[in-house]
């Protein structure tokens, strides 16, 4: 049983920083991508960032590129999302997710229905 547990959400002022953590358990994550999505009220769930568990290559949504970074600690089975220069429009529930891609062809799935496992989510609020 795969479990993903997020932590680190909270309230931050615009321009500030916040780091989210996601602890995975229940399996090894070889051939997986681990990532983050977010969902604001009344909006669809949006891809934020992902990292290849083995190689560490990272991918970002256009709205967070150059402000957010993603990293992983393989020994701790944990993935991190460092959010800098935050904006009020970053306010959302942030979800950790994992997808199994044994033969990655260079095209990362960014639709929520293409990902296999999800955490419960953590609220991030950015005040103006």
Secondary-structure blueprint of this entry?
Layout: E1 3-7, E2 10-13, E3 18-25, E4 32-39, E5 46-52, E6 58-60, E7 68-73, E8 78-83, E9 92-100, E10 117-118, E11 122-127
Parallel strand pairs: 2-11
Antiparallel strand pairs: 1-3, 3-8, 4-5, 4-9, 5-6, 7-8, 9-10, 9-11
Radius of gyration: 14 Å
Largest sheet: 7 strands, mixed
User: Could you say which structural class the secondary elements and strand pairing correspond to?
Assistant: mainly beta
Kindly report the average pLDDT value.
96
Taken as a percent bin, the fraction of beta residues is: over 45%
Question: Oligomerization state of this entry?
Answer: single chain
In DSSP terms (H or I, runs of 4 or more residues), the helix count works out at: 0
| Helical content band | under 10%
Question: Can you walk through the features of this model?
Answer:
The protein has 128 residues and is mainly β. The chain has no helices and 11 strands. Strands 2, 4, 5, 6, 9, 10 and 11 form a 7-stranded mixed beta sheet that branches. The protein has a 4-stranded antiparallel beta sheet with strand order 1-3-8-7, with no helix packed on it.
Key features of this structure:
128 residues; seven-stranded mixed beta sheet; four-stranded antiparallel beta sheet; 11 strands
Structure described in brief:
The chain has 128 residues and is mostly beta strands. The chain is built from no helices and 11 strands. A hairpin with a 4-residue loop joins strand 7 and strand 8 (78-83).
